[in-house]
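Example record used in the benchmark description.
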Amino acid sequence: MQLYQREAIEAAVKLDREAMDTVEVGFAALGRGEVVQPPILSMAIEESNGEVDVKTAHIRGFERFAIKVSPGFFDNPKLGLPSLNGLVMVFSAKTGLVDAVLFDEGYLTAVRTALAGAIAARHLSRENSRRVAVLGAGEQAELQVRALQLVRDIDTLDVWARRRESAEPYAERMRALGLTVNVHDSVKAACEQADIIVTTTPAREPILSAQDLPEGVHVTAMGSDSPDKRELDESVMIRADAFVCDTRAQSENNGELKAFARKADQDTQNGSAGIKGDKSPGFGGLKEPPFKVYELGRVIAEGQRLRVSDASITVCDLTGTGVQDTAIANFALSRLTS
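Model output (structure tokens):
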């Protein structure tokens, strides 16, 4: 068994096309039904304002599977400690023996999250997309744009953040990448000329609505990854010509589809139909939201073309999956041992 620290992992794994292609192979395998992916294990540690998520998946044909433990303790900055941490345990898919432990401190999660955004844009955005609006100014706000540059010729960035004092330093860092960067005081102003919109916030109430969407835009929403977070107003998903998620089950619980599930629950309790659809367990008492739901893995595996014209609006909700963790861990270990 090998132990690797973050410094070595960062040196081996970058935001590059090879890493992106590996994560995309994982998504495609998921779309073909070649992945065993249990539900996320989540545990709250309320007295310390903390939480822990455990994600895993086995991809048929991959040499190894990974189990990722990802703690978030959000009072840590007061102690001079990072709020996010974690490690990835990598096991042989043939023997079950531990091959390696990657003490990446959340680095691989950040990379595979950004690469998933680029994969979504590669399949859903216009090929001539050059202008990106980013809502948020944290780590993913930077990494998502850098990953997008792998698939689109991005030259202009518009940014909005709740605190302008966070947006300005972010803008300076992004200008160092050779981008034209504009800081805006409203979401609508940031999005009005966008080819791609990326939401990267911990918002608990929607920040993006249908009236903010220009014709032909692609939206990647990656901030909602737990039951208490939301970035998209329901109108965004209803307005979209195609709504895609990494996995429907996770989107219904942690991602943006939960808005419809909760509304359906309320309507059921109130004795009204609410949303059209056949009743069944598992989605707020209803079988379908008021639009078709696609999964990114099947879009990739089946070569689905959801953008039927340059005017089409597409939305992708990314909650983060175990298949991404196993894919990036296999990639990391191949680089570290080569």
